[in-house]
Amino acid sequence: SPTDVLSDPSHKFESMDASPKWCVKKKEDSPTLASIRHRIQSLAQLTKRLGVYTVGHMSAAGFEYTGNGDTARCKDCGLEVSNWRSDMNPFTIHSKQRPDCPFVYNIIPSSLSNEQTNPSERQSIEAMDSESVSNTLLETSLLQQVRRRTFSHWPHPTIPSSAQMMEAGFFNCNVGDR
Questions:
Q1: Of 9, 39, 43, 163, which has the fewest CB atoms closer than 10 Å, so is most exposed?
Q2: CA-to-CA dists, residue 121 to 108, 115, 126, 150, angstroms
Q3: Running DSSP on this structure, what letter comes out for residue 161?
Q4: Which domain holds residue 34?
Q5: Are residues 36 and 56 in the same domain?
Q6: d(Cα 114, Cα 124) in Å, to the nearest integer?
């Protein structure tokens, strides 16, 4: 039954038959069917586990499995790690062992590299950062005011209320139900 398939953790997606059973005339690999099959194979690949973590999880940390046990390698810096345990965080290990890796450098905010600058430069940078935060907060406040004004003539006294709509990030355009 479908429930058995969903609850069976050993179920392999690769064995799924994507062809519809109810069709009288079978179309030979239509573009849509081929696209669906490709997507299923891609998802199956991302959820495949060669070790503790899925391929997708390791990829998010900059690693690719090498095919040799659970060994994973970064394609940017060449760092190889194996014998993964569930208490090991792939990105933390990557960033601590190779902080100069281009992949890690693109993920970690540049403010972390400020620790290497001298204290007077750091104070100047921190002052600019706090100024940009206050500008961001001001912009957010202005955006909320504008959003509130668009709901000044909200014609629906019931759910959802104008407050709920504003909180959800909507603007009212006062044209029908758009």
A1: 9
A2: 20, 10, 9, 44
A3: P
A4: 1-47
A5: no
A6: 11
Give how many domains the chain has, as a whole number. Answer: 3
Output the domain CATH number for residue 91: 1.10.1170.10
Is the torsion defined by CA of 20, 23, 27, 32 positive or negative? negative
pTM value is 0.39
What are 135-142's contacts with CB under 8 Å, separation 24+?
A: none
pLDDT digits (tens, 9 = 90+) for 45-97: 655 666 788 888 888 899 999 988 889 999 999 999 999 998 999 999 999 99
pLDDT of residue 84: 92
Neighbouring-strand partners of residue 81 = 72
